[in-house]
Amino acid sequence: MTYQIALNFEDGVTRFIDASADETVADAAYRQGINIPLDCRDGACGTCKCFAESGRYDLGEEYIEDALSDDEVAQGYVLTCQMRAESDCVVRVPAASDVCKTEQASFEAAISDVRVLSESTIALSIKGEALAKLSFLPGQYVNLTVPGSDQTRAYSFSSLQKNGEVRFLIRNVPGGLMSNFLTGLAKAGDSMNLMGPLGSFYLREIKRPLLLLAGGTGLAPFTAMLEKIAEQGSGHPLHLIYGVTNDSDLVEMQRLQDFAARIPNFTFSACVANPQSGYPKKGYVTQHIAPKHLNDGDVDVYLCGPPPMVEAVSQYIREQGIAPANFYYEKFAASAA
């Protein structure tokens, strides 16, 4: 049996390796050209200590207490020289990718579809044989090179990879280099380069209720997460609040309704900040967080939006006197030309 191991490095780079059930994660990584730091292979030095964020594994009984204590094991720490996977796993490596002799992966693909969903949002799909080998954690992003330039822009995947195709929701920025290309020059078949995956904002193992908060095109990582949840299921309540500035900024609403139909315990709401809006729910995301969504702190909060929204939500939660079990967030800002 072979399992997929996602290695997340401290500089944000993620690399995926395959590990068989009878080899250690450190050996599997080394076999595939990634050197997780270690000074021994006997569980004695602790140099290869990492944190397993999800998955099942066996550590055996060969390591010593000085290298890995019982308390650390209970928290999820592992020695990769002893760790043998029993399922797909996500492992956080406390070292930069270049220290481990690896780097971002690069992929060439072509535009399969580009559509302007609203004045503020562009949907981009790219496809290619190389992308069939692309793995990422739902919520992560890549750097897309703007054709005709040497500049890149970071965008979260808004879908999982299927048949070598991935999708993005891109904010249409007046004067933006990528925006100008997509709205004025792009056509199906145009070549695009992407590098990644990157980022520590991704769906973890679901152990409690989730509150998902999206601002504008910050919805993108959540639709990828919801695709994954629809595939694997979840026994916990999931609620998404999607906030935009104007009525025309609301996109992918039918897709969210489809997720609500596919995921029995998933609900969502949307709100528009513009007081002149004709949408039923107005105001900011924080005005639509109900006490039940915070579940007295037994909740994992995921937030993706512009910096002011991230700060506002953080302050709102503090004011409620509640500390979520986990609070994951990603800030994004638009880049002009």
Structural summary, described in words:
The chain has 337 residues and is an alpha/beta fold. It folds into three domains: 2-93, Ubiquitin-like (UB roll); 105-198, Beta Barrel (Elongation Factor Tu (Ef-tu), domain 3); 210-331, Rossmann fold. Helices cover 18% and strands 33% of the residues. It contains seven helices and 18 strands. It has helices at residues 25-31, 70-75, 177-184, 220-232, 253-262, 291-294, 307-319, and strands at residues 2-9, 14-20, 49-54, 57-58, 77-79, 84-85, 89-93, 105-118, 121-127, 141-145, 152-156, 165-171, 191-198, 210-215, 238-244, 266-272, 300-305, 326-331. Strand 17, helix 7 (307-319) and strand 18 (326-331) form a beta-alpha-beta unit. It starts with a strand and ends in a 6-residue tail after the last strand. The mean pLDDT is 93.
List keywords for this structure.
337 residues; alpha/beta; Ubiquitin-like (UB roll); Elongation Factor Tu (Ef-tu), domain 3; Rossmann fold; 5-stranded mixed β-sheet; globular
Shape: globular
CATH fold type of the largest domain: Rossmann fold
* Mean residue pLDDT: 93
Structural domains: how many: 3
Largest sheet: 6 strands, antiparallel
Largest beta sheet: strand ordering: 11-10-13-8-9-12
N- and C-termini, Cα separation: 49 Å
Helix content: 10-25%
Radius of gyration: 21 Å
Order of helices and strands: EEHEEHEEEEEEEEHEEHEHEHEHE
The number of E-state strands comes to 18
- Give the class-level CATH name of the largest domain: Alpha Beta
